[in-house]
Give the backbone structure.
Amino acid sequence: KKEKNAIILAHNYQPKEIQEDADFVGDSLELCIKASKIDEADMIIFCGVNFMAETAAIISPDKKVLLPDNRANCQMADMISLEELKAAKKEHPDSEVVLYVNSRAETKSEATIVCTSANAGKIVSSLKGDDFIFAPDKNLGIYSAKASGKKAIIVPEDGHCYVHTMFKPEDIKQARIDYPNAKIDVHPECNDDVRQLADYVESTGGMVRLAKDPEIKELVVGTEIDLATRLKRENPDKEFYPLRRDAFCLTMKLITLEKIRDALKEEKYEVIVDEEIAKKARVGIQRMLDLSQ
Ligand code: 13P
Ligand code: SF4
């Protein structure tokens, strides 16, 4: 890593050994902010999924961005196509487009502004119109509409994360029985019926901050299982319970220490975003960063 003058960024869903070796661990927004501010390195090894690495490559074009396994995709990010988004814009020409960062670079190039789960309500509230096109997560679209009081035109109709939609109201009810003294914090990608039964709804970064609150001694987390790994690592005296033990993002786990070593050695797999697409996509990402820092 020193030889290549590289920096290792890791998402909160990476396993313990990667979290421990990374230079920076965060949620999607924190990783995007970090990537936009790196001066000291020539290379970013991104331990996460492809839309996160693409966003880093777009916002930090002078760095070589490597994804240690080029199959590490996010199913949700591929649920909105460029054609579908263009068709929605044609149908609603006066509506601005808020694109969840969990989307591919080419669709970001058609966005007014990008958002993450940490800032969706704030981003939508900053828009002038009474409605907005939102893609691709139905649940985050509904959540940001409620938070802003605006109408969401959601495309596609059922974009979702297979990990977060596993959670059911019964899981929350069971957690209240199993852990009567714990608070329950779920991710905005969860279904609305689940969110309504939780005590808090937050991005993974919000969960990390809440876990440090002295009032919190036990926390049930409704998100990918390795978030609890980070919480326990940073708060060894507290108890953290995954809302479901099978909430596992398979592609996040494609990244391993061995693949990080090979990525550094062989400088693979470089994330290349077409410059024309990157130029357009940068506008919506930068708008989000301007509102978030
Ligand atoms: P965060 O931005 O909250 O880290 O979420 C990213 C993600 O992919 C959730 O599934
Ligand atoms: Fe995508 Fe869901 Fe995995 Fe997050 S947890 S990266 S939204 S598939």
